[in-house]
Amino acid sequence: MPSEFLNVCLRRLFLCGSIATALLTLSIGQAAWIDPQQPTVLITGSNRGIGLAFVEHYLAEGWNVLATTRSPSSADDLQRLGEGWDNLVIEQLDVTDEDRVKTLAADYIGTPIDLLINNAGIYGGTKEQNLGSLDPQTFHDVMAVNVLAPMQMIEAFTEHVAASRHKKIVSITSGAGSVSGDQVSTGGAFYSISKAALNMAMRKAGAALGERGIMVVLIAPGLVTTDMLRQNRPNLVPRANSPAESVAGMAAVIARIDASHNKQIMNYNGSIVAW
Ligand SMILES: NC(=O)c1ccc[n+]([C@@H]2O[C@H](COP(=O)([O-])OP(=O)(O)OC[C@H]3O[C@@H](n4cnc5c(N)ncnc54)[C@H](OP(=O)(O)O)[C@@H]3O)[C@@H](O)[C@H]2O)c1
Question: Which one of 3.40.50.720, 3.40.630.30, 3.10.20.90, 3.90.120.10 gives the CATH number of domain 36-267?
Fold first, then answer.
C-alpha cells in the first residue's frame, strides 16, 4: 500500500519539521536579545517606581535588560518600553514564589548575569505596624518580600552572576533600616526591621560569595517619589528625588563597585550609610 506508506512518511516529516522550527524559534528568540558583547542586568519589581527607572537607565546604556514583574500583562509602562528596545526581555516573577524563582534561574542557565538588582519591596500597611494594632500577617509578608526573597534570588542566580564579567549583586535597602542612624521615625516598624534584616542578610551573602569574586552591596535610594512614598509617607514627597534622579546616582555608585565595597551599605550619592 504505497499511498498509506507515503502518508506515514509525510506525517513524520511534518512532525520533524515542526520540532525543528520550534527549536530554531527558541534559539533565535534567545539570540535576539542577549548581545554577548553587552553586560546583562536582572531587575526585580521593574514595572514601576525605582525598578522601572533602572530598566530605562540600563537600556539607554545598551545593556541587556531582564526586567521581571509580577504581572507582565498589566505592566503597561514596561511593555511600552519593550516596543522601542531589542535588548529588553520581560519575565513574570513574583519574588515570593520559590518555584518560579528556580524555574526562571533554570531557564537562563548559561546566561551570565553581570548585575542582579533586588529592587522589589513592600512597605506593608501603616496602621498594621503600629503598636496597638500590630498585624502578624503583614509582618510575615514584609519579611518575605524584603528579606527572604532577595536571599533566595541570590541563591538561585549565584552561578549566573559568577559566570559574568561584572559579578555584582545590589539590594535596595533604606535609611529606615539604619539601627544607629540619628533619626528613628515612629511609624513603619515592620518595614524598618525588614531593611535592617536585609542589610545583615546581604552582608552574610557577601561574606559567603566574596571568595568567588562576587560583590554584594546594599544601596539606599534616598527619598524617591514613587507609589511607596506617596502612599505611606506623603509628607516626605516634597523632599524626594524623582526615580530617574535616584537611579542616576545609584547607577554611578554601582559602576564604581569593586571588591573593596563587598558587604557595604551605601547611599545613592555614594556616602556610607550608618547601620
Ligand atoms: N521610594 C522611596 O522613597 C524608597 C526609599 C528607600 C527604599 N526604597 C526601596 O526601593 C525599592 C523600590 O521601591 P519603590 O519606591 O519603587 O516602590 P513601589 O513604587 O511601591 O514599587 C515596588 C515594586 O516592587 C514590586 N513588588 C512588590 N512585591 C513584589 C513581589 N512579591 N514580587 C515581585 N515584585 C514585587 C512591585 O510590583 P507590583 O506593581 O506588582 O506591586 C513594584 O514593581 C523597594 O525595595 C523599597 O523598599 C524606596
Answer: 3.40.50.720
